[in-house]
Design brief:
Blueprint (H helix, E strand, L loop, with lengths): L2 H15 L4 E2 L6 E2 L4 H8 L1 H7 L1 H14 L7 H13 L3 E4 L8 E7 L3 E6 L4 E2 L17 E2 L4 H22 L3 E7 L8 H7 L8 E8 L7 E2 L2 E10 L15 H15 L8 E8 L10 E10 L2 H22 L2 E10 L6 H14 L6 H11 L22 E2 L6 H5 L4 E7 L10 H7 L2 H22 L2 H15 L22
Parallel strand pairs: 5-8, 5-9, 9-16, 10-15
Antiparallel strand pairs: 1-2, 3-4, 4-8, 6-7, 11-13, 11-14, 12-13
Helix pairs in contact: 2-14, 3-6, 3-14, 4-5, 4-6, 4-14, 6-14, 8-9, 10-14
């Protein structure tokens, strides 16, 4: 064999032996990937994570049973903190002026990789862990968004990472943020505003879904607030002329806001509920309250629409002879996707793989599908991993948004619900209390742990994610929280 052929063969063998180079999903340009030895070393975290499955399942079920609403998750937060303390984490409780928020960390030095845990339930929904609508007597709250799974999986991944770092003598810090009240109280915004993320290099999180997917997503920015009208009470029959109905103020505002919908961008969303409407019909209500959300992908558009909603409230007060006060409850940026980081998550999600239903789980899934007769879904297959697609727009909001504007952040969804299930439904609450939810949570825990382990070994990947982050934010970006300087709305679920 001549020298030219020998050299060509050597190059070919080198190429075949090396891991395929990844591409930047945003630009198509090659991006660095860890070498085979680093990937193999990172993969040693998978058996560590798998061994924690019984603990993950128990934590998830316990938090599912507790089902505590935002900023009231006293027992759920304590349970997660106890797990982390028992694993040797340094835990700070009550951070950011929020009794149920905490930060737990382990390791030494940098990089600092953050994981996010949520554990609040939703009011107004109650459901047993069965495949037909079955409210639990005497209970009006449930984990209809799967946050019991979210918190349990993130804690599991953090514990696995701590053990892996110690066993391998690797420098770095894993930090878990216990973040209550994602369903409206937005604790992460306060933690970002108050500087708790200032030294974080990268953030990883996840959310239960109906499929396994790590496509970068843009969520809606949002402002929420309560409008409190004050009027004058009177006997509704004997002296109605003496009264000024606060409920009239709420209703006139609602009419004005509903007319406003025609004149806002198509992707904008406005929702409201009347949280207080009076005592009984023979008394002109002296006080009434409504609770509003305004959403759009562009933070500037949200601010503009919110100002118009406030003007509708002021006009309603003027028209009804009442007074109105406005309290901003929460506000969050839309998410800033990081394609580089999501690409790494996707690669590791594919390495972890999905899971299969047991016969009982398959029967559960089949029964759930009968409650979606118009979707045309014939089966639910949690073993599938969706390919990573182009950036998509999602229709929800999350306080992860603010985190993503101060540190490169990536998220994924795993098949913790039956295909076709949307969060905030009895079907989601049911699945969250079953092995289907727990298996999806384990996929998430393994994927986050494997991704973080790879990043601890790959400073070049961290640098690439940070470079994209800086470019995406733009040179003139300055973080200004939408909540202003208000304290956490610890009573936002009280009516």
């Amino acid at each position: 064999m001549n020298n030219r052929k020998t050299a060509a063969l050597a190059l070919l063998l080198t190429a075949l032996a090396s891991p395929a180079s990844a591409q930047d999903p945003a630009s198509g340009a090659p991006s660095s990937a860890p070498n085979g030895a680093a990937q193999s070393r990172a993969a040693t975290i998978l058996p560590i994570t798998a061994a924690l499955e019984p603990r993950l399942d128990k934590i998830s079920r316990d938090v599912w049973s507790l089902a505590e609403v935002g900023f009231k998750e006293t027992q759920s937060s304590a349970l997660l903190q106890q797990e982390l303390k028992a694993a040797g984490f340094r835990v700070k409780s009550g951070v950011g002026g929020m009794p149920t928020a905490f930060i737990a960390e382990a390791g030494i030095g940098g990089p600092v990789i953050a994981l996010l845990a949520e554990y609040d339930a939703l009011p107004g929904l109650s459901q047993a862990a069965v495949a037909q609508e079955s409210p639990v007597a005497g209970k009006n709250v449930s984990h209809a968004c799967g946050h019991n799974l979210l918190g349990a999986a993130s804690v599991t991944a953090a514990i696995a990472l701590k053990e892996w770092l110690q066993k391998n003598g690797i420098a770095g810090t894993v930090r878990l943020y216990g973040t209550p009240a994602e369903e409206g109280g937005f604790s992460k915004v306060y933690l970002v505003r108050d500087g708790f993320f200032k030294d974080v290099d990268l953030t990883l999180t996840w959310h239960p879904g109906d499929r396994n997917n790590a496509t970068p997503s843009r969520f809606l920015a949002m402002i929420s607030g309560k409008f409190r009208f004050q009027g004058v009470a009177a006997h509704a029959a004997a002296a109605p002329e003496r009264g000024r109905s606060a409920l009239d103020g709420v209703e006139v505002m609602d009419v004005a806001t509903n007319f406003l919908r025609e004149h806002i961008p198509q992707e904008a969303r406005i929702h409201y509920v009347i949280t207080k409407g009076g005592g009984q019909p023979n008394i002109v209500p002296a006080s009434a309250e409504s609770f509003y959300y305004v959403r759009h992908y562009d933070t500037a558009v949200v601010k503009d629409i919110w100002d118009r909603v406030v003007k509708a409230a002021e006009g309603a007060a003027l028209a009804t002879g009442t007074k109105v006060e406005v309290e901003i409850i929460s506000g969050t940026y839309g998410t800033l996707p990081n394609h580089t980081l999501n690409g790494i998550v996707q690669r590791n999600l594919e390495r972890v793989g999905g899971y299969s239903y047991s016969p009982a789980e398959a029967a559960f899934a089949k029964q759930i599908l009968t409650t979606y007769p118009n979707l045309g879904i014939k089966e639910s297959d949690p073993s599938q991993i969706d390919p990573m697609g182009p950036e998509r727009k999602d229709s929800g909001s999350s306080d992860v948004g603010d985190v993503s504007w101060v540190t490169p952040t990536a998220s994924l969804f795993t098949a913790s619900f039956v295909r076709g299930t949307m969060p905030h439904s009895w079907q989601a609450a049911a699945a969250s209390g079953t092995p289907i939810g727990e298996k999806g949570a384990l996929v998430a825990a393994k994927t986050m742990a494997l991704t973080a382990a790879e990043l601890f070994l790959s400073p070049e990947e961290i640098a690439a994610a940070k470079a994209e982050f800086i470019k995406q934010r733009g040179p003139d970006f300055k973080y200004v929280p939408l909540i202003g300087d208000r304290k956490p709305a610890l009573d936002y679920t009280d009516h």
